[in-house]
Structure of aminopyrimidine aminohydrolase:
Amino acid sequence: MWAKKHLLYTEATRHPFILSIRDGSVDLSSFKRWLGQDYVFVREFVPFVASVLIKASKKSDDGNDMEVILGGLASLNEIAWFKSEASKWDVPLSNTVVHKANQNYRRFLENLMLPEVDYAVAITAFWAIEAVYQESFAHCLEDGSKTPSELQDTCQRWGNEGFGEYCRSLQKIANRCLEKASSDVLTKAEVTFLRVLEHEVEFWNMSHGCA
Ligand code: HMH
């Protein structure tokens, strides 16, 4: 299980699409496809994060959780960011055809929004979803990367140090919840974590045009 997790995590955070941004060989039509699809994704991600906030307000014994999650929601003003980025790249957002991988991912999120899903499971998923983007885009900003200047804004959006700090806060919350979780919830959280990684890989595949 651990080896599989490790492998999938690397696949999700070092995907060929991300590596192509980092080495400057990225195909701009892939980038635009990703941008349009991610906008659609984020519109579903916001209600998911709101559902995690509601779970935190009911279940959590640590007053800090709500602040961290609220901070995440505020940064999901990605909606506005997407709109300006899309107009910069001439990507129409209104009639985007929602790709299969995106539909599957959004359906997965919808299920995680159900009230019967444990807070520990939902916050683990939330952390993993954010962490994949953080680790992926931070990789494109490291010394020695040849990320094209016009893609720097996008990489900064998720790759910046503040976003990294926020992901570490989410991880701390998830760890705290999992330490106290029953073995049943722990298993569900593990499975959910792996599903997130699979969906992220499929999402990148779609942008890259290999799906
Ligand atoms: C597919 N995963 C996907 N899109 C995002 N915007 C994030 C994660 C992080 O916010």
User: Anything to note?
Assistant: The chain has a mean pLDDT of 92. The domain at 25-208 is CATH 1.20.910.10 (Heme Oxygenase; Chain A). The pocket of HMH is lined by residues 38, 41-42, 129-130, 132-133, 200, 203 (CB under 6 Å). The chain has one domain: 25-208.
